TrEMBL record:
Highest taxon, organism lineage: Archaea
MF annotations from Gene Ontology: aminopeptidase activity; metalloexopeptidase activity
InterPro entries: M28_fam (IPR045175), Peptidase_M28 (IPR007484)
Any one Gene Ontology BP term: proteolysis
SUPFAM superfamilies, A to Z: Zn-dependent exopeptidases
Domain Peptidase M28: 107-306
Keywords in alphabetical order: Aminopeptidase, Hydrolase, Protease
Native organism: Methanosarcina acetivorans (strain ATCC 35395 / DSM 2834 / JCM 12185 / C2A)
Pfam families for this protein: Peptidase_M28
Presence of keyword Heme: no
Protein name per Swiss-Prot or TrEMBL: Bacterial leucyl aminopeptidase
UniProt keyword Ribonucleoprotein, yes or no: no
């Protein structure tokens, strides 16, 4: 996740943080108890396909890069590795260059077309791939286990599970670069969307920092805006139905890759560990695997997968 306003990292970009007044009666964060539906057996089976061993493999593989600073050679290696994983699942994958200040980084974009004839909706599942160590330069150790190998590994695990399920609607998976330097990857992606492509996007589910337990019980924060309320409601319901997650909500989006979408009134939601601001290891060399709570991460992945399944209109009759 991008550093907080008071300590945002910049590299030749100048200041871009802002202080925004809250509207009267606005809620910074709320804790809700969504009503659980009866679990659908077929959906339950699909969600149980989420694997701790494969998630941990993706997570540890990403952390093994010394850094994933957006302008480092290690980031390019990590992006190439992620591209290979997604291609192995059968997705059409592109490594798209982006500008980060005077340097270059990449977005990894993977697509799978739906099988419904005529106009199809587009569902995006996203995370940022880069990491940062604020006390060093681009080559300083930045394992970024929670921020954001945890979210990127979640995208890869969702990609793996969904690869076995034909669907009606189109799926796009994106691993953004340049997030820690100012949401460069997501800003440039959104600004480059054709009007017709923007209109097709029915939901963006973003994962950023999903694996540190900052609360007494496993908790997810769903952060969006009024345009995101329907998707936030569906995620909250899925959390209650298929996981043990407590749910926090906020309609004050900032500092992650859902924001450029929301700014263009595209329904996007950040899914992040509850009370994330108390995590002091991020953006340091201490953001390591020993602080990861795999149970929390897997439940957030399951919640996101359940909603993605529904939005895609997975055709169970064609499931292997």
């Amino acid at each position: 996740m991008l550093p907080e306003e008071v300590s945002r990292f910049t590299e030749g970009e100048g200041d871009w943080w802002t202080i925004r007044p809250l509207a009267m009666d606005s809620v910074v964060m709320d804790i809700i108890k969504p009503e659980a539906r009866e679990a659908v057996p077929r959906m339950q089976a699909n969600i149980e396909a989420v694997s701790q061993s494969t998630y941990n493999y993706y997570l540890s593989s990403l952390v093994n890069f010394l850094t994933r600073h957006s302008l480092s050679s290690q980031f390019t290696s990590a992006a190439t590795w992620a591209t290979d994983q997604l291609q192995n699942f059968g997705y059409q994958v592109e490594l798209i260059p982006i500008n980060v200040g005077s340097g270059e980084s990449y977005n990894v974009i993977a697509d799978r077309s739906g099988n419904e004839s005529g106009a199809r909706k587009l569902i995006l599942v996203t995370a940022h791939l880069d990491s940062v160590n604020l006390t060093g330069g681009r080559e300083a150790p930045a394992p970024g286990a929670d921020d954001n190998a945890s979210g990127a590994a979640g995208v890869l695990e969702i990609a793996r599970v969904l690869a076995e399920h034909p669907a009606k609607q189109d799926l796009r998976l994106i691993l953004f670069g340049g997030e820690e330097q100012g949401l460069h990857g997501s800003k440039q992606y959104v600004s480059g969307l054709a009007t017709s492509e923007r209109a097709r996007i029915s939901a963006v589910i973003n994962m950023d920092m999903v694996a540190t337990l900052n609360t007494a019980s496993p908790t997810v924060l769903l952060e969006g805006a009024p345009v995101s309320r329907t998707i936030m409601g569906e995620l909250a319901e899925a959390a209650s139905t298929y996981t043990s997650l407590a749910v926090q909500t906020s309609e004050n989006p900032f500092a992650s890759d859902h924001v450029p979408f929301i700014d263009e009134l595209i329904p996007a939601v950040l899914t992040i560990e509850g009370t994330d601001s108390s995590n002091t290891n991020v953006h340091t060399a201490n953001d390591t695997l020993d602080h990861i709570n795999c149970g929390l991460a897997l439940d957030i992945v399951r919640m996101n997968l359940a909603v993605t399944f529904r939005l895609l209109g997975v055709d169970e009759s064609q499931t292997p």
